[in-house]
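Hi D.,

Good news: the full-assembly prediction came through. Inputs first.
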Amino acid sequence: NAGVTQTPKFRVLKTGQSMTLLCAQDMNHEYMYWYRQDPGMGLRLIHYSVGEGTTAKGEVPDGYNVSRLKKQNFLLGLESAAPSQTSVYFCASSSRDRQYQPQHFGDGTRLSIL
Amino acid sequence: DQQVKQNSPSLSVQEGRISILNCDYTNSMFDYFLWYKKYPAEGPTFLISISSIKDKNEDGRFTVFLNKSAKHLSLHIVPSQPGDSAVYFCAAIRWGVNNDMRFGAGTRLTVKP
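Then the structure:
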């Protein structure tokens, strides 16, 4: 039971470099999310998607882009990495069956920007 | 602004005793609340939830209490076990805005044998 899988688990970047974080889910969920977690703060929503081909901004979207070309995949891109983007990134998914479906999370990607 | 607050960064209890984790919120539009549990190097996992039309929800050793007038909820774990040692996050959602879940900063629970 893979659930939600994030790739990579760790990455170190230099300021100005770009990269893409991949999230894959095998639960046929309609909704997918990207969060970041910083010390002393809760998870904050970056972007989310309610279905294939659709994305929307969350609470802290600046500096990130996303794409959902396939239902099972949700990509998070950093076009020009900045030290302020050093964080742990979590991907999550949930079904659309009921209004308040709990979200299922991946194990996170720890990203350091030097 | 943090709309969901967990004011205790850490809590330590003895095995077999009760653990009480607290959470406060400021947005009265929240109408569904969840607790997630997180172990190191893993993602959060859903633990228990409660709708704003209820004041209590119980699932085995875990009970969540909601006091809407005080905008306060708490998670009770009885009896506490060493395997419960983890970080617990409180989260809240508004009706119709299921995609905008707000999290507290978390409370690290340590259950001592």
